[in-house]
Write a structure and sequence with these properties.
This protein is 37% helix and 15% strand. With 345 residues, the protein is of the alpha/beta class.
Amino acid sequence: MTDRPANRPAARPTMRDVALRAGVGLGTVSRVVNASGAVKPATAARVQAAIDELGFQRDEIARALRPGQHSRTIGLLLGDLTNPFYASLAKAAVDITSRAGYAVVMATVDEDPRAERRAINELIGRRVAGLIIVPDQGNYGFLKPPGGREGTPVVFVDRPANGIDADVVVFDNERGSHLATRHLIDHGHRRIAIVVAPSYYTTGLRVRGYRRALREAGIPVDDHLILKLRHGTTQEATEATRTALALDDPPTAVFSTTNFLTEGVLRVTLPHIRPLAVIGFDDFRLADLLPTPVSVVTADTEELGRRAAQLLLRRIDGDTRAPERIVLPVELIARGSAEIPPADA
């Protein structure tokens, strides 16, 4: 047997460590962890405090693994899989990890922080080799093991996570939004509405790119044209677009910041007597087959999944370099809808 290198992180805490810290027996810790028996509230609180302090997480399959060995499973936590964006990302990640001999356990939590945390803890408890997560607005500090211990490798995708410095793979959201807005300006538009879903990261960057393009062109930003949706649904996008077009000085162009929102915008603009200019962020199926093909700013969603999976596999194999931030490029595809000039041009 070789000695553990001095710079190798300490092993993850055990129930014995929790018992020693809390000053109770192993049976008491087991009952608290598994909610399998009566424990006095004060004692249970002391055990839970020790669990939180040590960063203990129930290890349901550790006995089936040799010391230092992880499972051949990776956890993948995503948003709504009915959105082709997430489905494409997942497929690419699974392709890469399966070639490396890993199975993937997939979970969708639909932007629910509590459900997501339960799912993450369950996956860690099953000794997944690593995690790929599309994060919500919650705090992910709980993934940092205390005392420099070795934790489960994690890569965040599409947006960075709060509360933890970790690997992340994202698109160049601000540049994409700037490209879209600048393209509309170059085709004569000055009244440009932007439709945005709630998001702590992508929305902020996409609005920033929109504002910057208007500012550089000397066009004042009209906050009435920043259409912020409460939930980010297709129906909300339809209603917000209809409301904007009813303004005394309506927009002549609409920039939609997700594929689902673009669908909602088109429900209003396609039947319009004179088609409005429309550009979307994220491509979508049949966009090029509509009567007026839809111009988009797009990026390679599959590459997003591939790069996240490749980065995670390197971490699992022992890469200990500083957390990496990968920003993937975007491109503008002009198909016709964004090139419609204003009515008074």
